[in-house]
Amino acid sequence: MLKRKGKMMLAVLVAMLMLLTACSQPAPAPAAATEPAEAPAETPAETPAEAAGGKIGDVQAAGKIVLGTSADYPPYEFIVEVDGNLEVVGFDIEIAREIANDLGVELEIRDMDFDGLLAALVAGNIDFIVAGMVPTEVRKESVDFSVPYYRAEQRFLVRAADAAELSTIEALAGKRIGAQISTVQETIATEQIPDAGELRFLSRINDLVMDLKSDRIDGIVLVGPVAASYAKADAQLAVSDISFGQEDGVAIAIAKGNDDLTEAINATLERLMADDLITQFIAEATALADEQQVE
């Protein structure tokens, strides 16, 4: 009996030992939950600027390109009255419109003093300059230029009564010479008329013309088409026989680093020159300047 009880006790102890051993084993790790893969983040749609890139992208995003010019330079750029409103016109303006059209944007025109144009371009207040500007080495230090699109002769505007007398550069000795400030004409007046009695440089050609007509100066150094335009518009004025030679050619100024815009402008200019449209623009602007000029 005792032996049987002993066997029973031993069986109970073995069972308890097996139970304790099982409880001491670490529980198996639960199976990892399977999560759905994250959907890739949506890529935002590109803006027109990002799509095109560079300066052209900025211009297209704005929907306009801002032109800087000095509208006192017929037939390049000047002001006329159309249906009671003053508008900036000229063959430079038509070229600028072609550039805007090729870029698919509107043209905004800002008229300012010529000597303030480069500073406005460098500051980013305008996108390009079309203003009968010659790309001198000094100007190239601060801005880039397109290919030249027009060349003209440098002439001398005088009072009609003085045209016969002031027909040679030597005759300008001791005379009062005017020119627009910060222009090639200013350089010509300074370097090619060494015996001038007085040099007067102003921002606006209209002001120089007023000085000429009121006998405060004796003549103005001007590019040929501009001198001819003022003379045709006013019988008191005439273009002297004096010639200071042909300019290197006018071009469009673009801020440095905007190579894409420079290339696009060059492409437009090459197209216009190949189709002889610039010649047509000049003829139309000259005829318009002859009809109406706002001083």
Automatic annotation (TrEMBL):
Its main location: other. The keyword Lyase does not apply. It is found in: Cell envelope. Residues 64-285 form the Solute-binding protein family 3/N-terminal domain. PROSITE patterns: PROKAR_LIPOPROTEIN, SBP_BACTERIAL_3. Residues 29-53 are annotated as: Disordered. Keywords: Signal. InterPro entries: SBP_3_CS (IPR018313), Solute-binding_3/MltF_N (IPR001638). Residues 1-24 form the signal peptide. It comes from the Bacteria. Residues 30-52 have a biased composition (Low complexity). Transmembrane segments: none annotated. SUPFAM superfamilies: Periplasmic binding protein-like II (SSF53850). Belongs to the bacterial solute-binding protein 3 family. PANTHER family: ARGININE-BINDING EXTRACELLULAR PROTEIN ARTP (PTHR35936:SF17), MEMBRANE-BOUND LYTIC MUREIN TRANSGLYCOSYLASE F (PTHR35936). This is Transporter substrate-binding domain-containing protein. It comes from Anoxynatronum sibiricum.
